[in-house]
Write a structure and sequence with these properties.
The structure holds three protein chains of three kinds. Helices cover 51% and strands 0% of the residues of chain A. Chain A is mainly α. Chain A has a single domain, classed as Alpha-helical ferredoxin (Fumarate Reductase Iron-sulfur Protein, Chain B, domain 2). In chain A, helix 1 packs across helix 6. In chain B, helix 3 packs parallel to helix 4. Chain B folds into two domains: 182 residues, FAD/NAD(P)-binding domain; 153 residues, FAD/NAD(P)-binding domain (3-Layer(bba) Sandwich), CATH 3.50.50.60. Chain B is built from seven helices and 20 strands. By secondary structure, chain B is of the alpha/beta class. Chain C is α/β, with parallel strands linked by helices. Chain C folds into two domains: 128 residues, Glutathione S-transferase Yfyf (Class Pi), Chain A, domain 2, CATH 1.20.1050.140; 182 residues, 3-Layer(aba) Sandwich (Rossmann fold). Helices cover 45% and strands 8% of the residues of chain C. Chain C is built from 16 helices and eight strands. In chain C, helix 14 links the parallel strand 7 and strand 8. In chain C, helix 3 packs across helix 15. The chains are: A mainly alpha, B alpha/beta, C alpha/beta. Chains A and B meet through helix 3 of A and helix 5, strand 14 and strand 17 of B.
């Protein structure tokens, strides 16, 4: 990943709209419990981390798989409002298209 | 009853005071012209951001005690056990000290970052150590080698620690919390800069440490990348180009930094090694002086009458160093009373 | 960049290099693509430096290409290498100087293995005896031929006919030094200057009046890993490594590239053509590419050898712009003539890369 060249506007939007997303430490609790994650390749931990580094393709491609069930929110030890984070990402993606 | 203390860093100073309060005569030997040791290099301390100078002043003022004789600018040239349960310490001012017990508080030395060649310390202008950064905090001036305000700053954890190539397998314990503290301090000086920490693990072991890490992320917008720095190069603008893997994503990452701070680890000091050799003290695999027992004898060594405290035995933060110094003072006091009583019988 | 810091590191990585009486082990790739270089090396050592160098016509490939592609098993390559040691011993020499960097890496690796596992050395001695009735002694000194040139760089500078300078402006020429991976990356203590800031080629450049260039991808491999390069489907990956280096060195406007590994010199030279055909990109000024030299060619130019005599016409990227800068006189008409002066015909011109 070339961090210098990546478009980090998406990441900046996310940090602003869902500031608790900055607390993520990548523990993977969210992905482990994820409903969609247990049935598909959808990995919410990885996906939002990629966005933070400016790799937006995965999010644009797969974010729709999230069912907004909120299990990830219950698990997160840092208190990231994951549901809010996903909705913010969704909003950004829709605005772009 | 008298004790010679080798090294007037925080451990040596605190132990000297506690021993003096117990009525024991203390000779405190320090090779520099000020007390405080490595504490002199720091600006603010974790976890409460207290000024290092404040703590240093407290420890220094305690030394104004009738029972303490402070020898500054003096090195312990030769230490050995004499007969009749005494020790002799030959000083660099040609005087000879005789004492009933020795306390080795020779502290630590910082890893020489030049040994990590691939990081370019000493070769690239904008690669500095954590101590050099503290210096910049003291002078309230944070600029790159070309005098500009850095837009992106990276902290590299585990430099010289946990590294088989350097033969330092141990963890230096404090670098993670120091990096977080310094990242926050940099943020306070440069509100607009991008600040990243490159870590292998986040070892936030002490009270308030994990909370500080959390605060760094949430309030101070510090970014954390789990990935070890593999190599650094310099571009034509003297910026540092780094390669690390973002292991939480599983992809290699490259970026340009304006300033790179190396969190250099702790190693046994030259003084510790000299003391260990001269007094036949056992050294642990990590090079520090081995305590007699990790739970019940952490201030004693394999040699009767020789005690250790602080970072001469292992990397420690200041809280634990001072606690260790007090524990050494208690152990010493008890030992002296027991031994000297028997000698007088 | 702090030279003092680098010098500190170089002090720690100094290795012993023999003085004279060298057994020369030729290189498969260097002989094929840069035959003039091997001739130039021998001529320089014998006639300019008055050293005793011997090479044996019965010398073979070290089978490094096969070994690194998993085609040749390790016992075979060890026995082949043992035969090389035997040839050296029979000729009465103890100083081994391979021309190829991969060979150097293999000799170093094998000697190190035998040091830690003497039982393997015993086994190989047995194999060699069974196969060829030969016996060998291990070399007392192992150094790459670029180490030898480095060792005598000041003697060469003393005899220099011209320096690595632009004669029109007096500016030192900027040279990118590329070190073969098998030189120092496997055993950093066996390379002059270690693995991070190798000094063997930059030392030569400096001694001969040039200016070594340090650029971000200096340490990166050129892509000539045999098992990657031999498979055609994977060749793009190989080329991509060289491309990464070119992109990184371009802003520094180097006048030339010098390599001590023959494979690297071949790659960096030929891939500029390949990349230009694939994407239309050329590196260097005015579309002529960045000339690539082997260190023997660099030494020979400094000592005044004729460019066509040392084989520079074999290079893909035209060396003439560099020759013009250095003030080397050459006959452009003789470029594609054989030793009798008969024309061999001109090669086809590339689409984008300009050639002289």
């Amino acid at each position: 990943m070339n961090y210098d060249k990546n478009d980090k506007a998406f990441a900046a939007y996310l940090a602003q709209k869902a500031p608790s997303s900055k607390l993520c430490i990548g523990c993977g609790g969210c992905t482990a419990t994820c409903t969609a994650g247990n049935l598909t390749e959808f990995n919410i931990r990885k996906l939002q981390m990629l966005v933070k580094r400016g790799e937006n393709e995965e999010a644009c491609k797969s974010l729709y798989k999230c069912m907004l069930c909120g299990k990830c929110l219950l698990v997160c030890p840092r208190g990231v409002d994951t549901r809010k984070m996903i909705l913010a990402m969704s909003e950004y993606i829709h605005r772009q298209s | 009853m008298n004790v010679a203390i080798i090294g007037a860093g925080p451990a040596g100073c605190e132990a000297a005071f506690r021993l003096a309060e117990e009525g024991i005569q203390v000779d405190l030997i320090e090779k520099e012209n000020v007390t405080g040791g490595n504490l002199n290099n720091w600006y603010q301390l974790f976890p409460d951001r207290k000024y290092a100078g404040e703590l240093n002043a407290i420890l220094r003022n305690q030394l104004n005690h009738p029972q303490i004789r402070l020898h500054l600018n003096t090195e312990a040239v030769r230490m050995e056990r004499k007969g009749k349960g005494k020790f002799a310490v030959q000083l660099s001012d040609h005087s000879l000290l005789e004492c009933d017990a020795l306390l080795v508080t020779t502290g630590f030395k910082l890893f020489d970052a030049q040994r990590k060649e691939e990081y370019g310390y000493g070769i690239y202008d904008n690669v500095i150590t954590s101590v050099e950064l503290e210096n910049k905090f003291m002078n309230q001036q944070l600029t790159t080698s070309t005098g500009e305000v850095p837009q992106r700053i990276g902290f590299i954890h585990c430099v010289g620690s946990r590294d088989e190539k350097i033969c330092n397998y141990h963890c230096s314990k404090l670098c993670c919390i120091t990096a977080v503290k310094q990242a926050i301090e940099v943020r306070e000086m440069l509100p607009e800069a991008e600040i990243l920490c490159f870590y292998m693990d986040m070892r936030m072991f002490g009270p308030g440490y994990e909370e500080m890490y959390r605060e760094a992320q949430e309030k101070y917008n510090i970014k954390f990348v789990r990935g070890r720095l593999s190599e650094a190069s310099e571009n034509q603008n003297k910026q540092i180009i780094i390669k690390a893997e973002d292991t939480l994503i599983g992809k290699p990452l490259r970026m340009t930094l304006d300033l790179m701070v190396l969190m250099v680890g702790m190693e046994a000091s030259e003084g510790s090694k000299k003391a260990a050799t001269q007094l036949q003290l056992k050294q642990a695999p990590n090079g520090f002086i081995q305590p007699a027992d990790p739970h019940y004898g952490n201030n004693r060594t394999n040699e009767e009458g020789i005690f250790i405290a602080g970072c001469s035995s292992a990397p420690m933060n200041l809280t634990d160093t001072l606690a260790d110094a007090r524990s050494a003072a208690t152990a010493l006091t008890q030992w002296l009373k027991h031994n000297c009583k028997h000698k007088n019988e | 960049m702090d030279l003092l810091g680098k010098q500190q590191i170089w002090k720690e990585y100094q290795k012993e290099i023999a003085d004279d009486n060298f057994f020369y082990a030729r290189s498969c790739i260097r002989q094929t693509f840069f035959p003039g270089s091997e001739w130039a090396y021998l001529d320089i050592l014998r006639n300019k430096l008055h050293k005793n160098v011997v090479d044996d016509p019965r010398h073979t490939t070290c089978t490094g290409i096969g070994y690194h592609s998993d085609v040749v098993p390790v016992e075979t390559i060890m026995t082949v290498v043992a035969r090389h040691f035997a040839l050296m011993t029979e000729a009465g020499y103890e100083n081994l100087t391979p021309s190829c960097i991969t060979s150097f890496g293999i000799y170093t690796e094998i000697l190190d293995t035998w040091e830690h596992h003497p039982e393997i050395e015993e086994k190989i001695r047995e194999f060699l005896w069974k196969a060829t009735q030969r016996e060998f002694k291990k070399p007392r000194n192992l150094a790459h031929t670029s180490d030898i040139i480095y060792k005598f760089r000041n003697e060469i500078a003393a005899q220099a006919v011209r320096l690595l300078k632009d004669v029109h402006t007096g500016r030192p020429l900027r040279g990118v030094d590329h070190i073969g991976c098998h030189y120092a990356k496997m055993f950093p203590s066996k390379g002059i200057g270690g693995a991070e800031f190798p000094a063997v080629l930059s030392g030569m450049i400096e001694a001969w009046g040039g200016e070594p260039v340090d650029y971000p991808e200096r340490r990166h491999c050129c892509g000539f890993g045999f098992r990657n390069y031999l498979v055609m489907a994977n060749r793009g990956f190989s080329v991509a490594n060289s491309k990464k280096k070119f992109e990184s060195m371009q802003p520094y406007e180097p006048d030339f590239i010098v390599a001590n590994c023959p494979g690297c010199a071949m790659f960096l030279d030929k891939w500029q053509y390949t990349i230009s055909e694939m994407e239309g990109t050329t590196y260097g000024k005015d579309g002529y590419g960045i000339p690539v030299l082997t260190y023997e060619e660099m030494a020979a130019l400094v000592l005044g050898y004729d460019p066509w005599e040392i084989g520079l016409q074999m290079h893909q990227v035209s060396v003439e712009p560099l020759l013009d800068k250095m003030g080397v006189s050459y006959d452009p008409d003789k470029k594609y003539c054989n030793s009798r002066g008969e024309s061999l015909g001109k090669p086809q011109c590339p689409t984008y890369l300009k050639v002289k």
